[in-house]
Amino acid sequence: MSKVKSNNVFKKIAKGLSVSSTITASTFLHGPPVLALGLTHLFGRNKSIDDTTIKLTNSWLNVNNWLIEHVLPETKWDIHVDDQLELSMDGRYIMMCNHQSWVDTTVNQYFGVSRMPLTRFFTKWELIFIPFVGQAFKILDFPMMKRHSKEQIAKNPALKMQDIEEARKSCQYLANQPFTLLNYLEGTRFTPAKHAAQQSPYQNLLKPKAGGLALALNLLGEHIDALVDMTIVYPDGAPGYGEFWLGEVPRIAVELHKIDLPEWVLAGNYEEDAEFRGKFQQWVDQIWREKDQRISALKQKYATQ
């Protein structure tokens, strides 16, 4: 092994150790207080305690962001926010985003921690059993749903309404505070294999699952300041989580746009009204086609640089 390669390997190992040890130390510093404060939910909600919990969580995110800015200077960020979109830490937002990598959530947090309220997303109830992570999701009011399979719902239709009711209860807490509720409409990470299997009509995206967005808008639409579309592009290919933290992602492009919300969107019943469901799906399809075009334009821009 040449001296140059040896030095590069050493630098990579050193960077990996410094990043992982810092994130681990930060998690052990911030995690126990969050869990301890979460136990107070057993005796009722207290706004000052909830605010403290969110501040601790944002402090943990800020440590990660400090690492990104000071330990990963190799990564160049190109962030653009539509002029029509005014963001505030006191705002209430539903956000949709394309999904390619576990890094997407880190990108979202890097952008949002100083510009938007803490980002939550719908997650599975089963995650509650993962130490620290599951409990933190519950304490921070991530909507947690006991998602049942189509087969289970077919045998017991009441389970479908149980899922919706669980989501409704979770969203009640969000409606009374600033929030950003994130929805990955594709439902899974984009891969060429999944794209081919779906025979997706979009060049850069999987087919969107409109039901999750419809549910979020039904539960929270009257409370939000904006419906936000975030587009993430990795010009050099979607990275793994380890690649990102080792500084092996040269460029990340992020664009945010405000989506106009027609009045009819909040007035229908997606689950029960087939006509409304079809109209809603067409509306989402148009949003997705415009997003697909933006991704193609960004890829073309970076291909010439």
From TrEMBL:
<keyword id="KW-0012">Acyltransferase</keyword>
<dbReference type="Pfam" id="PF01553">
    <property type="entry name" value="Acyltransferase"/>
</dbReference>
<keyword id="KW-0808">Transferase</keyword>
<dbReference type="InterPro" id="IPR002123">
    <property type="entry name" value="Plipid/glycerol_acylTrfase"/>
</dbReference>
<protein>
    <submittedName>
        <fullName>1-acyl-sn-glycerol-3-phosphate acyltransferase</fullName>
    </submittedName>
</protein>
<dbReference type="GO" id="GO:0016746">
    <property type="term" value="F:acyltransferase activity"/>
</dbReference>
<feature type="domain" description="Phospholipid/glycerol acyltransferase">
    <location>
        <begin position="93"/>
        <end position="235"/>
    </location>
</feature>
